Amino acid sequence: MHPRVLKTFLAVARSKSFTRAAEKVHLVQSSVSDQMQALEAELGVVLFIRSRQGLVLTEAGETLVSYADEILALNEEARAAVTTAAGQAPGSIAVGALETIAAVRLPAWLSGFQGDHPEIALQLKVAGSGELLRKLENGEIDVAFCFDQGDVDQRFVKRLIAREPLVLVTSTANAFGAWKPDLAELGAMDFLGTGPGCVYRTMLDAAFSEAGMRAPRLAVEVGSIGAIARLAAAGSGIGLVPRLAVADALERGEIREAAWPGSDQFASLVMVWRRRRVQPPALRLLLAAASEGFASPRSADVRPRHAVPILS
């Protein structure tokens, strides 16, 4: 079973479609079909059956998925081990990150890392949390920087590297009754939020649910923190965001902030990478550097500087 064919098999298994799998592995659909037929012939079993919902794995196919993951991971580990033993140059690293982290936290840190290791070529790819994990699965990136959304499966390793304070932001013309409004006050206000599944949206909904209260009305659902800040400045509603993402707008006086009264007042910033017996030398250097020097000086729990009483 060639690793290239196993990679195609996993793409088909996870997308449940030859067409979508072809896009992921950059092949034409006929090549994907040919590879799967050849794999089934080699193993002497049927791996997929067709249904109204698309392709469905047979029991044999389900069994192969876990082995295919392990074989591909071992293949990568073998390459890394051989490269290390041969004393070759560390190579390159593809870094994935959420838009907020890529724009605010990574530029200076990656520049410093590159200054210390000019022999390592870096790539930075921006995507949402779910897409970052898919890119890790597919080998498109080596490490992802994102906010923690719970446990990852055993194929990955997750490490906490910083805790970023969350704040409520609003326009300068309409602030809060106190520097730390309660959930009852907030429940009557219009909010600006990211889509379901985003860590900030999850924390917003969870806080009201834990308090036995209905979540506030979502005035606008937006796809980026920058858009939330601009809409808040225009008076469209209130946003719950990590302070690091709006620090510049706060300094310019475009928006004001208040403390978030939810039980969890911080977003945990983590890095996630594939579990291997031997990590590539370049990635090992980056993981060590991030573990030692990524913590934010802003992660202390401090009172917001721009909170003001509500304007009647």
From TrEMBL:
A single GO molecular-function term is: DNA-binding transcription factor activity
Q: What protein does this entry describe? A: HTH-type transcriptional regulator TtuA
InterPro entries for the chain: LysR_HTH_N, LysR_subst-bd, WH-like_DNA-bd_sf, WH_DNA-bd_sf
Gene3D superfamilies from the UniProt entry? Periplasmic binding protein-like II, Winged helix-like DNA-binding domain superfamily/Winged helix DNA-binding domain
Instruction: Please give the family membership noted in the entry.
Output: Belongs to the LysR transcriptional regulatory family.
Query: Which organism encodes this protein?
Result: Rhizobium lusitanum
Function in brief: Transcriptional regulator of the ttuABCDE tartrate utilization operon.
Concerning PANTHER family, the annotation shows: HTH-TYPE TRANSCRIPTIONAL REGULATOR, HTH-TYPE TRANSCRIPTIONAL REGULATOR CYSL
Q: Which residues form the HTH lysR-type domain?
A: 1-58
Q: Which SUPFAM superfamilies match?
A: Periplasmic binding protein-like II (SSF53850), Winged helix' DNA-binding domain (SSF46785)
Q: Name one Pfam family in it.
A: LysR_substrate
**Which key words tag this protein in UniProt?**
DNA-binding, Transcription, Transcription regulation
State the signal peptide span: none
